[in-house]
Specification:
The chain is of the alpha/beta class. It is 39% helix and 15% strand. The strands form 4 sheets. The chain has a 9-stranded mixed beta sheet, sandwiched between helices. Strands 4-3-2-5-6-9-10 form a 7-stranded parallel beta sheet, with helices on both faces. Strands 1-11 form a two-stranded antiparallel ribbon. Bound molecules: ligand NAX and potassium ion. Ligand NAX is lined by residues 14, 17-18, 26-27, 30, 56-60, 62-63, 128-137, 140, 157-158, 205, 228.
Amino acid sequence: MISAYTVDQLRSAERAALVDDRDDAVMRRAAYAVAAVALRMLPRPVPGRRVVLLVGPGNNGGDALYAGAVLRRRGADVLAVLADPERAHAGGLAAFQRRGGKLIDATDAMTAAVSALTRADLIIDGLLGLGARPPLRPTMARLVLAANAAPAPVLAIDLPSGIDPDGHRAAEPASEGNGATPGAEPQSGPESEPVAVDAASTITFGAPSTGLLLAPQTGRLEIADLGLAPDQRVLPDAIALDDIDVAFHRPRLGRDSDKYSSGVVGIVAGSAKYPGAALLCVGAAVSLRPGLVRYAGPQAAAVVQRWPEVVASDDPVDAGRVQAWVAGPGMGTDGPALRRLNVVLGADVPVLIDADGLTMLAHNPALLVRRERRSHAPVVLTPHAGEFARLWPELDLGDRLTACRAAARQSDAVVLLKGDRTVIAAPDGRAAVNLTGTPWLASAGTGDVLAGVIGSLLAAGNTPGGTLDAFTAAVVGAHIHGRAGQRAAAAGKVGAPALWEYLSAAG
Ligand SMILES: NC(=O)C1=CN([C@@H]2O[C@H](COP(=O)(O)OP(=O)(O)OC[C@H]3O[C@@H](n4cnc5c(N)ncnc54)[C@H](O)[C@@H]3O)[C@@H](O)[C@H]2O)[C@@H](O)CC1
Ligand SMILES: [K+]
């Protein structure tokens, strides 16, 4: 599990480590870690390879300069581009120059800097770290545009310059694709997006800041443990799971398993207009291998034809016992749909509401309030941005994690906000960022699959031996779904049903 912290939390942990940091000892250790990753990224042989350092005014630039000195010792041809020469880190600069590193002042030699970036084998981004206050000022923004347009991969130190370390504001990756010319004055004005380094890898120290998890610009995340992480009494701002955590959380069959010990999930999905949603959601639930899937809705015949093992009825009232409900995908919003939703919300088991179910909740906020009076079992809401805005119009989606947290608190539900980086928040303040996924998943029906996956996990968590709470079920489900999407995309598959076969193995 990766624990991410706010800048304030990281700064206070670092303060303790830096009290007695004579001779930049901590910074030198950080620089060695940077150089080790850089050496892995450079083509062989290393001597003569061109490395360009982008050096900002703070300690992040210091890290880059010390790392540059190490790379010089390995024979690389290293050039430091200083974005703010008067404020470049003195100790780092001296060490770098002692090793024969070359310097360019970007404030008066931008053309030379851009041309060096274009010819580089590796670019190291030491413009800004934890002290970043985006958006970037013009000199840095120009360098970032040029670095992103260059063929070389970028290794970002601590974070990709241009992102908000706390993740409160999003930055678009800057590239030629957004109409900007490398080296030219970045456009300003309301339409221009804040620019940020688009890193192939980011190496951070101790623990990442939350913004690093949220930003797609981070690329591959490396964490060097320099003894700088906050201690275990400090609650992380957000977490992210990896494949090993998720494998650990996956429900397992025991020798004495029966259907109720493996989880029985009920699904209300699909309608005459959207029959496919029923199949997609049920198929996903079945793929997670719960004890039993019950279907309750107008597509009962089609569902049983495809999965004879599913027990189907027309209405949740007649469905029999379940340990969690999913309601919403393609179920419609008419009178019968509203009645089915009401039945599900009245059940004293965990309930996941998605899609049309969320639309009905937005129109009838009293439904959730009534649910609170009828059951203490958790509710999971899985909106995309449009549904989120209809449910909580007052919350600012420019700051997705904060908005998601506020929504979870207000509605006393686990809220999973879908997106390029899906975020999940619990009413008690826990939050997670999902790091799996692919643009392949931005297609019709994949949300129905996600609902079925999380529904199965909720049911497993509600068994006598179940250990998955609703928040963890949502985080694990998002991870499995994203990983399945990556595998389906890599296999060249098309369409949401392709996810089924990858769900049982994913993550
Ligand atoms: N504190 C520690 O324990 C360690 C810190 N290290 C490095 O030190 C970094 C933090 O150093 P600093 O506190 O000096 O912070 P930065 O290196 O992020 O520099 C902050 C300075 O950049 C300027 N700046 C901020 N936003 C800007 C913008 N949008 N455009 C242009 N200029 C801007 C401001 O003048 C600010 O003072 C970490 O990210 C990490 O890379 C490492 O050396 C490891 C040890
Ligand atoms: K950086």
